[in-house]
């Protein structure tokens, strides 16, 4: 049986962005498959009673410093939008829609959104900014918007979120190797061990 990492993610999490920059390398190194599973972090928080660390002043300050340390360690840029945290409902429906309807363009799609949000620090809460980012990356904003109202897309995202909670997920990123759950981008060394 081939080794897999299930990656439960939401674009709006900076720790998820950092994990996203490293997981493909870990999977390549261990000859493992990376399975991207979009979920809605707001839905996870609501179901579990959890909240963003950014909402707790002391924890938030520490988190920003720690994420910056990890970005430097990984050699990747990390820039926060002034509008952080953002509501990712429409973005994650678009991500889910792209995975369901246009899987061949899925990775390019999430690449452009992660880059706009966490490398360029663009405000993806703003529909005009999202449309500009999509256009610049060869996507039709109207086609993407249509995906966000697709009933199957909405139901699948909701289902992914509910399944994540049932498996013990309380935040993002959450990764599974078999039945083992790993929470946070600072647990990637344990994922590497589990795959090796």
Automatic annotation (TrEMBL):
Keyword Isomerase: yes
Documented EC number(s): 5.99.1.4
Membrane spanning stretches: none
One GO-annotated biological process of the protein: glutathione metabolic process
Keyword terms, alphabetized: Isomerase, Transferase
Domain DSBA-like thioredoxin: 4-195
Enzyme class, first EC level, given as a word: isomerase
One CC-aspect GO term: cytoplasm
InterPro entries: DSBA-like_thioredoxin_dom, GST_Kappa/NadH, HCCAis_GSTk, NahD-like, Thioredoxin-like_sf
Gene Ontology MF terms in the entry: 2-hydroxychromene-2-carboxylate isomerase activity; glutathione peroxidase activity; glutathione transferase activity
Protein name (record): 2-hydroxychromene-2-carboxylate isomerase
């Amino acid at each position: 049986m081939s080794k897999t990492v299930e990656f439960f993610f939401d674009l709006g999490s900076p720790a998820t962005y950092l994990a996203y920059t490293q997981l493909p390398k870990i999977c390549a190194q261990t000859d493992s498959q990376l399975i991207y599973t979009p979920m809605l972090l707001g839905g996870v928080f609501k179901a579990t009673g959890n909240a963003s660390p950014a909402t707790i002043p002391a924890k938030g300050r520490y988190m920003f410093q720690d994420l910056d340390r990890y970005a430097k360690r990984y050699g990747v840029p990390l820039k926060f939008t002034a509008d952080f945290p953002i509501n990712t409902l429409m973005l994650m429906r678009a991500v889910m829609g792209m995975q369901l309807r246009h899987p061949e363009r899925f990775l390019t799609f999430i690449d452009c959104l992660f880059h706009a949000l966490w490398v360029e620090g663009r405000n993806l809460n703003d529909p005009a900014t999202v449309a500009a980012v999509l256009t610049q990356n060869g996507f039709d904003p109207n086609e993407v918007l249509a995906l966000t109202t697709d009933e199957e897309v909405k139901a699948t995202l909701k289902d992914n979120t509910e399944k994540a909670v049932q498996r013990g997920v309380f935040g993002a990123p959450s990764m599974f190797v078999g039945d083992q759950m790993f929470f946070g981008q600072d647990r990637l060394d344990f994922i590497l061990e589990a795959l090796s």
